[in-house]
Each structure stands twice: as structure tokens, then as C-alpha cells.
Amino acid sequence: MDLREEEEKEVVVVGGGICGLATALALHRRGISSTVLERADSLRATGVAIGIFTNGWRALDQLGVGTKLRQTAIPIQAFRDISLDKGSQREIPFGKGELRCLKRSDLIQTLANDLPLDTIRFRSQLIAVKFDPVTSYPLLQLHDGSVIKAKVVIGCDGVNSIVAELLRLKPTKLCSTYGVRGFTNYRDGHGLSSEFVRVRRDHLIMGRIPIDDKTVYWFVGRPWNPQDSNVSKDLELIRQSTLESVQGFPEEMVGMIQSSELESLTLTRLRYRAPWDILLGSFRKGTVTVAGDAMHVMGPFLGQGGSAGLEDAVVLARCLAQELSMVGLMPEAERVGAALDRYVKERRMRVTWLSTQTYLTGMLLETSSLPMKLLIIVLLIVLFGNSFGHTRYDCGHL
Ligand SMILES: Cc1cc2nc3c(=O)[nH]c(=O)nc-3n(C[C@H](O)[C@H](O)[C@H](O)COP(=O)(O)OP(=O)(O)OC[C@H]3O[C@@H](n4cnc5c(N)ncnc54)[C@H](O)[C@@H]3O)c2cc1C
């Protein structure tokens, strides 16, 4: 590594997605300044929208942005699950629980707006990390040849995390499903009920959630096939192939795809970190750790990946702030190490359970074998009796 332009920083967050920005904001709220390295040249909000349940809203409230964000999205009152195979439907009212669907751009922008100026450094792509042989602090090498020596590094760099590689975490795995997501805007209002509606048939799933009175977010999950690599580059092809796959679905939902905003469409091959890799993974090395998808990417089957990243941010900042406030008891690097160990301990079981429930829910969609389906249903009932129980989780005060 070339050390010519070495620069020193206290805390470096790698990645300016939902989790990286939330982590920087949580640290800022606890009086710890950080630098966010983001490889893109501006804030990016890939993936259209994001459903946030009670647990995510609790984390956003701790970050001080919950009230502002609630103004951008209507509350969803119930979940309606329709099976076209069985011709059945069930409705689950949310009762005291909270679900709202946020535009990702609103979430990203709101988190970023509350950060001090110059916290985010764009066009800063991390290409390698190693430890300084003298101080044992991490050295970050960026694509432009510059090197940053940081006291703490938090990898929020997503599914192909370079920081996770340093921790020797097993690579993330590909799901056999892909997700198409989009918005549909209705100039005179959509007139839909404030429900999260999910329709299933064979291995295909489509959901829609209103964001506000005029905009609806929808997604389709279906098995991946090799032609999809070409489709993903052409927005009109994404729309056409999605329309073909949902033939026979309720007209209202098919029409939503037909009239969707073309530029909003994204097609993503889904990835996950296996629950057993999360249970056994080593998430801290020296003063380096990971959070968000870099730690626990999971399929979107529970809509919890982003909220889990928000929870990580709150817990991580709390652990660091508490440990660093105990001045003089231990050398700083050891205190940071102790804080990161507490963070990992607190998060490990939470994200293992979340990813297990997500994994089983995804397998239920993907498998064709009846005995396997029955086994998964039994496991889901035994392990997760209440399918929305995970949304009641409280990550605690910042
Ligand atoms: C189809 C689908 C639907 C979903 N729906 C929901 C939902 O309803 N609710 C929910 O809570 N979650 C949902 N999720 C999950 C959620 O989108 C993710 O968990 C969340 O966006 C992860 O945020 P992150 O900040 O950890 O990672 P990312 O959003 O991937 O951000 C990583 C950032 O790091 C940057 N970066 C990467 N490498 C480097 C590098 N080397 N140097 C510098 N910068 C780098 C990237 O440019 C990016 O900005 C869904 C996911 C999918 C795929």
C-alpha cells in the first residue's frame, strides 16, 4: 500500500447508503464525528421505496428524523395476503403497529441533511484495508491512491463489502429469485385503501403499498432465469417481462405496472448471508466492524433489511459513545474493541433470527416440493408463531 498521502481520521464509515448515513447520524447525535466514504458522486437511492415497520420507526425516532419522515408517507392499516393458488385471502390489521412506505430518496436525503457539512466524501471508493503494523489501526486505501489511517472503521458498504472481506466473512449467496420494483403515480389520486396487499401464485409474488395519496410502490419477486441479465439493462424490457409474468393477477395490480414510471424501475438479483454464517461470523477485527447489508444482507421477504441496518446504527453508536466516555480506564483502541464486541453481541441474535425467518419465508416461495413446504411451514410456526413479532423489536435509546 502506498503511504504517500496518509490522512488521519477518528471514525470512518464506508458507504453512504441507508445504514452508513444512519450510522454517521447516530454517532453525530452522540457527539462523535465521522467521515462517510461513498464511491458514487452523489447521494444514490437505488430501489425506489422501502417499507418501514414499528422497529424501524423506533430507530428513526432515536435518530431524530422520525417525525419529519412520517410527513412523507401515510400509515398503512392492514396487511392483505392473497393466494391465487388456493383462492384464499387473509387480512391482518396492524393494530398498534406502524408501517409506512418511504421513498428511498426521502430517507437518504433526510438522514444526510442532518449531518454536519463535509461529513460525506463522494467519489471515495475503498479498494483495500489493512492494519498498520506499528499502531494496529486500520489503513484504508482509496481508488485515487490516497490512504486514510482511521481509529475506527465501520463497513456499511453493502452486499459486496470490502470491509467484510477483511473480517473474513463468507461471501454472500445468490437467491434464485429476483426483484423488480417501481412506482406508479396517479395524478388525481390512486383511491386505494391504505393496505399492504401481497398476491402470490406459484413462485411469483407481487406486492403494493401506497406511499402517499398519489404514489404507490410495487414489487414483483420471481425466479431468476439467464435472459434476465439482458432484461436488467433495458427499462422497457423490465416492464414488459414483468407484465408477462403477472398475467392473471388482479387487474388493478397489472395496471399499476403498465402505468408505472419507467425511470423508477429496477431489477435486482437478490443476495443473502446465510443465517448460520451470521450466527458464527466474526464481525470485529481490531477496531473494524460492519453494519447493514455488509453484515447481514437478507432477501426482501420480510422487508426488514433496511430497518435492521437502522437498528445497527443506533446500537453501534450507543456502544461506542458509552465505552468512549469512560476516559482513562483502558487504552483507546481497547475501549473501541470492547464497544464493538458489545455491539456485535447485541446484534448477533437479533439479525440471526431475522435472517432465519427471511430465509425460511424465501424458501417457501422458491421450493416446489410439498414435503419441504410443509416442513418450512412447521418451522415457521414453531420458531416464529407470530409472523409480525419481529416488528415489535425495540433497539433502545441512542
Ligand atoms: C427488492 C428489495 C426490496 C427491499 N425492501 C425492503 C423493505 O421494504 N424494507 C426494508 O427495511 N428493507 C428492504 N430491502 C433491504 C434494503 O434495501 C437494504 O437492506 C438496505 O438498502 C441496505 O442498506 P446499506 O446501507 O446496508 O447498503 P447499500 O444500500 O447497498 O449501501 C451501500 C453503500 O456503500 C457504497 N459502497 C459500496 N462499496 C463501496 C466502496 N468500496 N467504497 C465506498 N463506497 C462503497 C455504495 O455505493 C452504497 O451507497 C429490500 C431489498 C431489496 C433488494
From TrEMBL:
Determine the domain of life of the protein's source: Eukaryota
Q: What Pfam family is a match, any one?
A: FAD_binding_3
Segments spanning the bilayer are 370-389
Identify the species of origin: Tetracentron sinense (Spur-leaf)
What's this protein's family per the entry?
Answer: Belongs to the 3-hydroxybenzoate 6-hydroxylase family.
Name one molecular function that GO assigns to this entry: FAD binding
Question: Any signal peptide, and if so, which residues?
Answer: none
Looking at the record, the residues that make up the FAD-binding domain are: 10-352
Q: Which UniProt keywords apply?
A: Membrane, Monooxygenase, Oxidoreductase, Transmembrane, Transmembrane helix
Q: Which Gene3D superfamilies match?
A: FAD/NAD(P)-binding domain
Instruction: Indicate what this protein is called per its UniProt record.
Output: FAD-binding domain-containing protein
What InterPro entries does UniProt report for this protein, alphabetically? FAD-bd (IPR002938), FAD/NAD-bd_sf (IPR036188), MOase (IPR044560)
